[in-house]
Amino acid sequence: MPRKVNYGLDYDDDYDDNYDEYDYRYEVDENETPSQKETIKHSVWRCSICTYDNDETMSSCDICGVLHGPLLNNSIYDKKRTANIFDLKSSRVSSTVVGRDEAVKVSSMRSDSSNLSTEKGKHNRLDEINILKNIEVGPPAGSRTSDNCSASVPEGWLDHVDESSVAVNLQSSVKRSLSLMPKERNVMVDDSSSSRNGGEANSLTSNLENISFAAKSGHSNDANPGRANSRAQYKPEKWMLPEKAEHSLTQLNLAIVGHVDSGKSTLSGRLLHLLGRISQKEMHKYEKEAKLQGKGSFAYAWALDESAEERERGITMTVAVAYFDSKRYHVVVLDSPGHKDFVPNMITGATQADASILVIDASIGSFEAGMDGTKGQTREHAQLIRSFGVDQLIVAVNKMDAVDYSKERFDLIISQLGTFLRSCGFKDSSVSWIPLSAVENQNLVSAPSNFRLSWYHGPNLLDAIDSFQPPTREFSKPLIMPICDVIKSPSQGQVSACGKLEAGAVRSGSKVLVMPSATIATVRSLERDSQACPIGRAGDNIAVSLNGIDGNHVMAGGVLCHPDFPIAFAKHLELKVLVLDGATPILIGSQLEFHIHHAKEAARVARISSLLDSKTGKVAKKAPRCILAKQSAVVEVILQEAICVEEFSKCKVLGRVFLRTLGRTVAVGIVTRIVEEQ
Ligand code: GTP
Ligand code: MG
């Protein structure tokens, strides 16, 4: 039933340890922060990231969640610790498109990792004249690699940048070189069922006038020539805005995350079954098949884990998408993989989330394993979703049956994990804790029937989902749809781009600019939740069937945008990053895996411009050699291939990045400047 978000696996065993040549000594140069004293008021502390003045009683920034504390601990870094250079494997299989059926229906397609084919570095040069001809309106678009982490690092700081503070000063005359056609990603089609989904729930904070990343970066050269139109100038047409009564249920994209085997898929399957999305007959079938394979306990998970490999291994590998309706929401369930090898897949699914359920295995030893700094995924998932902008969280303390529904166990989990979540920037008031058992159906959609849970008087899981605040949508902004899947039917000459509409709206007949090929296409039809739909608006997960474009020019990692408001395509970027607690230091020359919306690319740290002071957010040291755990810094990275990107201040979803190495997220960040466009 559910479609799978399909992302290439990412095994990173090829790397070199060649950091010994670096000197890890790092000292903050006090002399370089002359204004620091002036900016610290007596009873407040200033956030290093957003410069908001917080009351001294606050342990983390009220605006962006950054922890208050000495990030620059002027330590001499442990020389024994070696950083490793990640080498992105260029082993993506060459692209083949297999049409199984002549008339492929978008909604009835599914892809999984086994039949995904990608090719890295395959470039088709586009005829520049054609491109210029095609663009009719406007100018061409110019956790730690943990050792022994005891504390954790905030991530909410990525959300809060004042949009208005970034000066838009683009010139229209310079033509972009649009000759690059990055990696292709063709999805083999298949005829199982279901479709795809997707939110961005954060409003920008108004009082961050000091953060003008583009302006502050100290570079005056305009990196975005050719992209003349400011998104602020955009005026939406009437049909693009939802009428009040039009959608009775707001769509809520809900990422189910957590450590491997915590019961995410079982919980999702159980919910879908209880809410009538999986029939009794289907359920019997799953039970029978699972039993036959000796995996009886995975019957509910099988509703989400569809591929033979997932069922065989008993783990989720790609993000499964399913739907149900609660009282308030049309919920899009994004069941993520918990296994560490599939964190990149988790990222691509959860990046679309408006809210999240963090599933915890309450069993003795299992909760602890999830919290483990080296192998556990609970912390990394929590950090990642916070940095995706998710600030509303349900912690589903699952498998309570395995601990006899013990209140003490539940309280212990709250106390240990609660501290960690606070340090990630989650506010207590935005986190609900629900003890439950997916297998024994306790506390999912109704009050627990088991007397051993009689100590619990809070909401059940479904009620907690209904208590989420509705996400904010960017209806009045120009179209942005990062493409997470491409479905092709070569025999029919059809191509559909799937993803979540982050901003704006489309309907059949709309002209869209497909990036990075910079080709204009016309929307033929749209589907949402496997149904044809007339209009797609911000927040919707849709499949957009396109006319007038070569299928090779539509690729996952690309973006559909408004022809007058092209997004950038670049490989040289300035970032503001925060290195996670316990992570390997980032050095000049570090090779990292760079993640941004649905794209992933190998990146090299070309420059560390400055370290930022934890208290003032100002430059603490210019041109340091490395960034240690818990430090934030401005860096420049050069990617192996250009990607579709925007400055975070202009478009959050296209400007939020994750840096990973050795299978761990080492830093989260935002794009502060596009140094050079392609
Ligand atoms: P990944 O996607 O691979 O990370 O795993 P998951 O989190 O989706 O876990 P899954 O749903 O596959 O379940 C893993 C195992 O936990 C299965 O054997 C389930 O039967 C078991 N399980 C899930 N929920 C419960 C529960 O409430 N109680 C008990 N005792 N076992 C459970
Ligand atoms: Mg699973």
UniProtKB/TrEMBL annotation:
Its biological purpose: This protein promotes the GTP-dependent binding of aminoacyl-tRNA to the A-site of ribosomes during protein biosynthesis.
Gene3D superfamilies: P-loop containing nucleotide triphosphate hydrolases, Translation factors
UniProt keyword list: GTP-binding, Metal-binding, Methylation, Nucleotide-binding, Zinc, Zinc-finger
Similarity field: Belongs to the TRAFAC class translation factor GTPase superfamily. Classic translation factor GTPase family. EF-Tu/EF-1A subfamily.
Domain Tr-type G, chain residue ranges per copy: 249-479
The UniProt record lists the keyword tRNA-binding: no
Cross-referenced InterPro entries: EFTu-like_2 (IPR004161), GTP-eEF1A_C (IPR054696), P-loop_NTPase (IPR027417), T_Tr_GTP-bd_dom (IPR000795), TRAFAC_GTPase_members (IPR050100), Transl_B-barrel_sf (IPR009000), Transl_elong_EF1A/Init_IF2_C (IPR009001), Znf_RanBP2 (IPR001876)
Source superkingdom: Eukaryota
UniProt name for this protein: HBS1-like protein isoform X2
Species in which this protein is naturally found: Gossypium hirsutum
